[in-house]
Predict the structure.
Amino acid sequence: MNPVPIRIVLVDTSHPGNVGATARAMKNMGLDQLVLVRPKLFPHAEAIARASGADDVLAAARVVPGVPEALAGCGFVLATTSRERDQYFRVLDVREAARRAVVAAATAPVGILFGAERTGLTNEDLQHAHALLRIPTSAVYASLNVAMAVQLVAYELWRERARPAADLTVREQPLAPPEEMARLYEHLQSVLEEIDFRDRTQSGTNLMNRFQRLLQRAELDVNEANILRGFLTSVQKKRRRAGEP
């Protein structure tokens, strides 16, 4: 089975053994793109030992300072979670999420985020996702080791990749990459300030977060993101003309 452009992104991993075990889990299931965001200890002898035959995946791993750098150039982005539901995000079962990821990978790289061992992903990390990925577990003990979570996700990705190509409906246009969406959000924030459409909550940050989550759920492609930016530019031009002497 040919390599697939799906990135496994570990964020703030503290135990080097988990990095090595993740590399092994990935190689078991034909994945080779590992990105590490601010790992506490890497490279490390324990990571090499736990990789156990997946040294090539470990050696090719990229270390980056933040999630935006890890997801640069990606289309569809998933963030792992233990939540069964979320009022702001679409939450997908691991099998459905794997199906979506494999389809999306046909047009652009896919990123799957895994959080730190103790704390998981932050709300800021989740802002980059189009949907959350949940692995169903027993309610008695729902905590999964990060490398174990990667193994389960990688297995579901392998199963989906083995399905006949005729079963997959591929989008005509790839999703707008995170860096393009970031420019859209900056543009939207600027226009909101120009027209004095402000967040009236105490924190003053809720409005823009809600807009961002709304647009992430919409899964905009590049053309749609450009249309919205063109609309925002027209709003700015009309407003400036109206204020001229």
